């Protein structure tokens, strides 16, 4: 996994090895890993996950219902340290 110095949230696929002789030594399972850079970024990351799983209309409906103004650009992190 590569660290992103300026990202509001990051979604990546992570391959995890499966244990057990019945599966053999070369089998793995891929999981979606989401990380965020803070509290409000976590809310935006959660909406990105909802959008990925259920569609943009559902994510927009929930955000509008909660009166939350989403940031939809994962690279828009004004609080990230300049490196």
Describe it for me?
With 83 residues, the protein is an alpha+beta fold. It has a domain at 9-65. Helix content is 31%, strand content 22%. The protein has two helices and two strands; from the N terminus they run E-E-H-H. It has helices at residues 39-54, 56-65, and strands at residues 9-17, 28-36. The protein has a two-stranded antiparallel sheet. Helix 1 (39-54) crosses helix 2. The chain is flat.
Overall 3D geometry?
Answer: flat
Which regions contain 5 or more consecutive residues with pLDDT less than 50? none
Bin the helical content. 25-40%
* Overall average residue pLDDT: 85
Order of helices and strands: EEHH
N-to-C span: 19 Å
Radius of gyration using CA atoms only? 16 Å
Strand content: 15-25%
Taking the sheet with the most strands, its summary is: 2 strands, antiparallel
Work out the number of β strands: 2
Structural class: alpha+beta
Count of helices? 2
List the strand order in the largest sheet: 1-2
């Amino acid at each position: 996994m590569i660290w992103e110095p300026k990202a509001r949230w990051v979604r990546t696929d992570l391959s995890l090895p499966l244990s057990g002789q019945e599966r053999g030594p070369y089998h793995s399972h891929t999981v979606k890993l989401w990380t965020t850079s803070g509290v409000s970024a976590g809310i935006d990351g959660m909406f990105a996950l909802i959008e990925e799983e259920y569609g943009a209309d559902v994510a927009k409906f929930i955000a509008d219902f909660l009166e939350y103004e989403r940031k939809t650009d994962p690279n828009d992190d004004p609080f990230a340290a300049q490196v």
